[in-house]
Amino acid sequence: MTRTQMTRPDVVERPRTPHRRTPEGPRAAGRRRETLAGYLFLTPWCVGVLLLTLGPMLVSLYLAFTDYNLFDTPRWIGLRNFRDMFADDRWWHSVRVTLEYVLVGTPLKLAAALGVALLLVRPRRGQGFYRSAFYAPSLIGASVSIGIVWRSVFQDDAVVDRAMRFVGWDAGGWVGDPDWSLPTLVTLTVWQFGAPMVIFLAGLKQVPRELYEAAEVDGAGVWRRFRSITLPMISPVLFFNLLLELIHSFQVFTSAVVLGGSGGGAGGPADSLLVYTWYLYEQGFRNLRMGYASAMAWMLMLGIGLLTAVLFRTQRGWVHYEEGTDAR
After folding, report:
1. What is the DSSP string of 87-127?
2. Would the pLDDT of 263 be above 50?
3. Residue 66 — φ and ψ, nearest 5°?
4. Does the entry feature the keyword Ribonucleoprotein, yes or no (predicted)?
5. Is the pLDDT of residue 267 over 90?
């Protein structure tokens, strides 16, 4: 009882009535319907992720610890697949070939994309045509047909071989030579620089022209403006392209198989084009060692994930974001 009730005995405390929930207004009901509609539209995507991505990944993780030949029941063998992998000289060779391809092809591809983007960022006649022409190889470059054409151009006594002999260099067919087959594959990769070029173009257009004008007034040359203004301003775009191209390069398959098919098997002459994904395919579907192939797939995923983590860890030292933004 309150002090007033204690001093006034005629005041009787009324029992409190339970709080009644007010009915939802039209706005709340509308938001609820929109939420339900959003989840309904997300349902096909969620089902696809569970059945086509997450489910196969979990099955593959289980098979990585089993002996499975695609026909019999998987037999649990623990870490034997991983031990056999590290003792496999051909697996190490595929790792070396893939790393050489990634470390050489990715920087050259990004350099070509950035160089062409710098040429096309300024308004000029026929700019749309040139952008489309440089972008087209990215759409068709990874196809089997382009790989066959590329192999026909660089094989023995083909166009490139005849042109080189005309200038006095008789090197023979590139795709049939173990020393030149991987550079041929790198050349095909660099030729497909259109996709990162478009992203670089978008980044270059965001650089304020006032910075270049002020640098010109201060007497900065072309290289100084590129190093002090262009690169820092487009460093987030450069980081994005670098990350995507590294991941894409580790997954190279079609072009390597098509080019390598002319030199003693899909691995190329002397296994010079034995990239990681082709060896994974060979073990899983030719040798029917799907458990071993699953272990290889998870090692590839682990390697790409580790490299991605290193890039995100080191990007704070060379990637410059606008004030108020940060990459976590």
Report:
1. T-HHHHHHHHHHHHHHHHHHHHHHHHHHHHHHHHSS--TTH
2. no
3. -130, 165
4. no
5. no
pLDDT in tens, 47-80: 988 888 899 999 999 999 999 998 999 999 999 9
Domain 80-317 falls in which CATH fold? MetI-like fold (1.10.3720)
**In angstroms, rounded to a whole number, what is the distance separating the alpha carbons of residues 44 and 42?**
6
Tokens 């458990």 belong to: 291
For the chain, the domains span 80-317
Q: Which token pair is 320?
A: 């410059």
Going by pLDDT thresholds of 50, 70 and 90, the confidence category of residue 296 is very high
pLDDT in tens, 103-144: 999 999 999 999 999 988 887 787 788 888 888 888 876 678
Helices (H) and strands (E) in the chain, counts: 17, 2
Residues 185 and 169 sit within 8 Å (Cβ to Cβ): no
Rounded to an integer, what distance in angstroms lies between the CA atom of residue 60 and that of residue 257? 24
Q: What is the pLDDT of residue 113?
A: 94
Q: How far apart are CA 36 and CA 79, in angstroms?
A: 45
3-state DSSP assignment of residue 142: coil
Buried-exposed string 17-37: b where 16+ CB fall within 10 A, e elsewhere: eeeeeeeeeeeeeeeeeeeee
